Design the sequence.
């Protein structure tokens, strides 16, 4: 079985085991926060020399796999 995300690692000793981009302490979560704040893949990689655009895109693909089976429950208050 081929690892679809070879550059995403999880180590209990690094950021409590959060998935990170290999060789960095930059979590997938932080990468998504930057994107949500208006950063682009290119601006992230320019600001963080260890991150190539391909690594940022891999982090996005990794995160998207969890949204594929997301179940939303609507709660209405009266």
Sequence:
């Amino acid at each position: 079985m081929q690892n679809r995300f070879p550059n995403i690692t999880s180590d209990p000793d690094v950021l409590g085991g959060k998935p990170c981009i290999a060789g960095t302490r930059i979590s997938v979560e932080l990468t998504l926060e930057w994107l949500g704040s208006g950063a682009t893949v290119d601006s992230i990689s320019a600001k963080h020399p260890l991150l190539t655009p391909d690594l940022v895109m891999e982090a996005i693909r990794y995160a998207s796999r969890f949204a594929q089976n997301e179940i939303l429950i609507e709660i209405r208050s009266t």
Notes: The chain has one domain: 8-66. The first helix runs from residue 28 to 36. Residues 8-66 form a domain with the Arc Repressor Mutant, subunit A fold (CATH 1.10.10.10). The mean pLDDT is 89.
